[in-house]
Structure to design on (595 residues):
């Protein structure tokens, strides 16, 4: 009877002891799965796992490549946010659990506060969308192998972990140094027989491995061999904090020896301890989560997701409902406006940059611009330039789903079917994009099928036949060159007019009124009409003939109302601003006066 009661008590204690870990996992899962799923979206779109032996071999070209390969494999499942949340939360929780096990093995008792502090710090780091999964994966690998080493040190006769370090370095690169530091501190302070000999042998092996890697195997610099795959870019520019956390982890054998004793009167039951720890963890995750949550990023990546799906009307509707000052958001929105023939009707419903940075992006090799800037050129028919942006991004950062799809589209449009088939084969060798790859495959060597395709057919029809070297620092120059060679390029013309609007060039906007009918417009765009009416009134000049097209009849009375509101406020720009913003904030007139 007593033994049964003891077993029941032990089981209850195990359950109550597990409560904090379950709470930590649940809090992390809810946060990543439902609040910051944009982090998972970004990371899934930034890398592409290809199920081929060639792709595996590519990732074996330097120490640490296998860790990155495994990170890409797990990140590909971020395609489904809830699955991604499970993966991220599992890795974080396992780190907490292994740290607890290490402390228990070294000190003979577990101190839950240290493992969960580590867990919260790594949760904080992972809550940055640029902090790649392989970082925490690398930490988990080192901690797990260290725990196994000290747990089975005697049965392994002590030397196996030391001799294993070259293999670990090849698999995880610079992250293997964490394992080496952990084992060093353990061997030195454990006073194990021949501990110093093992430490010296281990570090000698590491240095020899790096030397051989540099001179005979990988031909990388010492700096690369010591750092890769760790980088400031892949840690979300949180290098110092991440290194600090790794530094704390490296001295776990010392931390474990610190005695934490609670006075008897403050000791609580296992149940109470589990509940209190769980509550504190939930509060900590909530506070950190609120601090790290970025509504602007969430909105931007939602727009990007809709954009990649070609849901241009949904992009526009979302941005109207959720106004943004993010230049990349507005850049994608302007492309959506152009693709739906609304660029000069709704341009000033969104916050524009007078220098044109929301219309075009300047070439940039570092950062996020290179991944997105080519879509502007794709829209206006500069297919080769769109291909160049996508190709350079692939060279700089490797394959990504949308980048590979852009390469396929541009090769199909240009009729380069052999190269398109190679890219399609890569896309087919993925978990979640093979269906799209098969759809592209049906278009290979079939001009009629491409011309019948709603998107690719239009792009082939509108592409620039005579290529020229693009000026990436001033995209407006490219537009002028396009129109000089193809005066009927409607989308390029729309961008030209949008740029003139941003530059407040009333004269040229008005002069171009006769061009709209020739280009196939069915009406004069709203903002063009606003600019023309204002120019004619302020300069007492008649508008040039625009053929069968006319300016919206509501434009003239609205302009009169705008002027009356301005005059009613003493012709004072500052005084009139609130009233004009209320009724005319989406007009070209308000932009012209106040931007």
């Amino acid at each position: 009877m007593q033994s049964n009661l003891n077993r029941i008590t032990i089981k209850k204690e195990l359950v109550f002891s597990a409560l904090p870990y379950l709470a930590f996992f649940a809090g992390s899962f809810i946060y990543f799965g439902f609040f910051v799923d944009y982090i998972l979206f970004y990371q899934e779109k930034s890398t592409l796992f290809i199920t081929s032996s060639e792709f595996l071999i590519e990732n074996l070209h330097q120490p640490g490549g296998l860790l990155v390969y495994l990170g890409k494999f797990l990140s590909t499942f971020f395609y489904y946010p809830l699955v991604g949340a499970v993966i991220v939360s599992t890795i974080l929780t396992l780190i907490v659990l292994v740290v607890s096990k290490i402390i228990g093995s070294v000190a003979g008792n577990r101190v839950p506060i240290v493992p969960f502090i580590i867990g919260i710090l790594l949760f904080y780091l992972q809550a940055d969308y640029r902090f790649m999964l392989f970082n925490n994966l690398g930490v988990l690998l080192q901690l797990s192998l260290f725990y196994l080493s000290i747990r089975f040190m005697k049965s392994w006769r002590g030397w196996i972990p030391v001799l294993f370090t070259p293999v670990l370095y090849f698999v995880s690169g610079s992250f293997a140094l964490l394992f080496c530091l952990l084992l060093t501190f353990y061997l030195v302070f454990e006073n194990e027989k021949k501990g110093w000999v093992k430490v010296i042998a281990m570090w000698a092996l590491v240095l020899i491995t790096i030397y051989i890697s540099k001179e005979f195997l990988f031909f990388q610099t010492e700096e690369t061999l010591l750092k890769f795959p760790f980088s400031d870019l892949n840690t979300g520019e949180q290098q110092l904090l991440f290194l600090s956390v790794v530094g704390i982890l490296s001295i776990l054998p010392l931390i474990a020896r610190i005695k934490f004793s609670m006075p008897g009167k403050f000791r609580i039951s296992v149940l109470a301890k589990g509940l209190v720890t769980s509550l504190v963890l939930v509060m900590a995750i909530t506070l950190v989560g609120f601090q790290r949550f970025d509504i602007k990023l969430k909105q931007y990546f939602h727009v990007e997701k809709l954009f990649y799906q070609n849901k241009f009307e949904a992009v526009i509707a979302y941005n109207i409902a959720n106004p943004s000052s993010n230049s990349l958001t507005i850049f994608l929105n302007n492309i959506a406006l152009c693709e739906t023939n609304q660029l000069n009707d709704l341009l000033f419903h969104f916050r524009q940059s007078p220098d044109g940075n929301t219309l075009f992006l300047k070439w940039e090799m570092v950062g996020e611009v290179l991944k997105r800037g080519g879509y502007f050129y794709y829209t206006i028919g500069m297919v080769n330039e769109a291909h160049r942006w996508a190709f350079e991004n692939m060279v700089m950062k490797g394959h990504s789903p949308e980048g590979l799809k852009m390469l396929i589209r541009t090769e199909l449009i240009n009729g380069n079917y052999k190269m398109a088939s190679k890219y399609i084969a890569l896309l087919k060798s993925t978990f979640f994009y093979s269906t799209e790859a098969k759809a592209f495959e049906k278009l290979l060597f079939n001009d009629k099928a491409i011309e019948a395709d709603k998107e690719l057919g239009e792009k082939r029809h509108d592409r620039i036949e005579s290529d020229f070297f693009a000026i990436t620092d001033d995209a407006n120059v490219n537009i002028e060159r396009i129109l000089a060679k193809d005066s009927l390029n409607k989308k390029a013309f729309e961008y030209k007019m949008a740029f003139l609007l941003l530059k407040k060039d009333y004269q040229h906007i008005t002069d171009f009124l006769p061009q709209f009918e020739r280009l196939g417009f069915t009406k004069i765009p709203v903002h063009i009409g606003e600019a023309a009416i204002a120019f004619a009134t302020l300069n007492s000049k008649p508008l040039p003939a625009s053929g069968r097209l006319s300016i919206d009849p509501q434009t003239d009375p609205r302009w009169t109302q705008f002027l009356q509101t301005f005059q009613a406020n003493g012709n004072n720009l500052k005084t009139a601003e609130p009233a004009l913003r209320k009724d005319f904030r989406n007009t070209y007139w308000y932009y012209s006066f106040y931007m």
Observations:
- Residues 16 and 189 are 33 Å apart (CA to CA).
- The chain has a mean pLDDT of 90.
